[in-house]
Specification:
The chain is 52% helix and 7% strand. It has 483 residues and is an alpha/beta fold.
Length: 483
């Protein structure tokens, strides 16, 4: 038989659809899954009559490929990836490429890149975003790893990726070792934030304005014609008009406990390691954790009675306030995410193209939106931009949205409506633009109980001082360091 252009290991939803995507773009694909029944079902089903060769073993999969071989894995992150790499390496030759398209932790990808390169092969860890539909029709792809591997896989990956209106592909080289998976991790963290913000807007309309699902469907449909135009706003509008068998809104019958697969948590951990305040995304992760405490929340709701909410203002005007609060909070989410990527790039020596990342997220992925075009413009104008909020467009936009943002958060607080992400976004904004925070008192407290020292306003930065606050604490100071 003719040799295949690429191989796929793992034929679950994403792997199977990516195989079909590759084949539809003119490539011949070999496919393998550790469950023989899955391979057979695919071979006799969706792969039938196509240039797809299902193989019964990894050895036959590798031998079916053109050289240099490209083997892509869409399997569960963690130990399964390491085990598969170890099974593949003896079958491959120098210069062959292993591609991990799953949601692996970027630290694992750094380690695996070094390991595979030490054996003479090349490695790519790439984010693939877009879900089932994106995998089949064109996802956003964020590759990083061995730089020498990029020219070998670029024609394949760019061929199956989404593209935006100007024809640009939503797939470009991100950087060395774990850079691709780091950017995908931040994408997923921002996705957590976007979803939580939309849910908070939904709860405000539902519990403060007492709107029904169809009324909210219309609001989200209208919002999708504004600056909020995005995939997630669009599907929210669609969800709210779907009825259950009895004619009532299906969303009202879904239990309010949310799941997660870990990338949001990883984003929060990375932000703490880098010392970057990722407050909105962190709160979005914790909101899912709180939702999982359903039984406890039911008990607490009975223990703490709520006063019925009566809204007496202008309903239409408040809906517009919610829209503006959502947009302002969304800007904060992306500002925090980009600040995290910037910090990590310095830590790991990655040369990230921030405008290019926004372009990759413009199509195919879950957070795709017209808003990302503004981020790309900001970084094209100023590649050294330290925070998105300092870009003239975003600065003026936030200023125009702030009054509505404050009104919405205040209304929620006064009526007992939780707004963890919108509220934390506003708090971050107020803190970011506050010239004098109370950390001076904090440092005094740390010096008082632990001799941790402090800097002075009347001395150059980098000089540290200690005070014997009680008169009997001594003059010996602790060493100065930041974790």
């Amino acid at each position: 038989m003719n040799k295949s252009d690429i191989a796929m290991i793992g034929l679950a939803v994403m792997g199977e659809n990516l195989v079909l995507n590759f084949e539809s773009k003119g490539f011949t694909v070999s496919a393998y899954d550790r469950f023989e029944s899955v391979v057979q079902a695919f071979q006799s089903g969706r792969a039938k009559g196509k240039n797809i060769f299902a193989t019964p073993s990894l050895a036959e999969l590798v031998s079916s490929l053109k050289t240099p071989r490209k083997v892509m894995m869409m399997i569960k992150a963690g130990e399964p990836v390491d085990n598969t790499i170890d099974l593949l390496l003896p079958l491959l030759e120098k210069g062959d490429v292993i591609i991990d398209g799953g949601n692996s932790n970027f630290q694992d990808t750094i380690r695996r890149t070094q390991y595979v390169e030490s054996k003479g092969m090349l490695y790519i860890g790439t984010g693939v975003s877009g879900g089932e539909e994106g995998a089949l029709l064109g996802p956003s792809i964020m590759p990083g790893g061995s730089p020498a591997a990029w020219p070998l896989v670029k024609p394949l990956l760019q061929a199956i990726s989404a593209q935006v209106e100007d024809g640009s592909k939503c797939c470009e080289w991100v950087g060395e070792n774990g850079a691709g998976h780091f950017v995908k991790m931040v994408h997923n963290g921002i996705e957590y934030g976007d979803i939580q913000l939309i849910c908070e807007a939904y709860q405000l309309m539902k519990d403060v304005l007492h709107m029904n699902a169809l009324e909210m469907h219309q609001v989200f449909s209208d919002w999708n014609k504004t600056e909020l135009d995005s995939y997630l706003i669009g599907i929210t509008a669609d969800i709210l008009q779907v009825e259950d068998a009895d004619g009532t809104p299906l969303v009202d019958h879904i239990l309010d406990t949310a799941g997660q697969k870990g990338t949001g948590k990883w984003t929060g951990i990375a932000s703490m390691e880098e010392g970057v305040p990722l407050t909105l995304i962190g709160e979005a992760v914790y909101a899912r954790c709180l939702s999982a405490m359903k039984e406890e929340r039911v008990i607490a709701a009975k223990a703490f009675k709520k006063t019925p909410i009566v809204f007496s203002g202008d309903k239409k005007a408040f809906i517009e306030d919610i829209r503006k609060a959502l947009y302002a909070s969304k800007i904060i989410s992306y500002a925090q995410g980009y600040t995290l990527m910037s910090a990590a790039a310095k830590t790991y020596g990655w040369n990230l193209n921030f405008g290019g990342i926004a372009l990759m997220w413009r199509g195919g992925c879950i957070i795709r939106s017209v808003f990302l075009g503004k981020i790309k413009e900001a970084y094209v104008k100023n590649p050294q931009l330290t925070n998105l909020l300092l870009d003239p467009y975003f600065q003026s936009t936030i200023e125009a949205l702030t009054a509505s943002w404050r009104k919405v958060v205040a209304t929620a607080v006064l009526n007992g409506i939780p707004l963890p992400s919108m509220g934390s976004a506003l708090s971050y904004f107020d803190g970011y633009k506050c010239e004098n925070l109370p950390a001076n008192l904090l440092q005094a407290q740390r010096d008082f109980f632990g001799a941790h020292t402090y800097e002075r306003t009347d001395k150059p930065r980098g000089q540290f001082f200690h005070t014997n606050w009680t008169g009997h604490g001594g003059d010996t100071a602790s060493t100065t360091y930041n974790v």
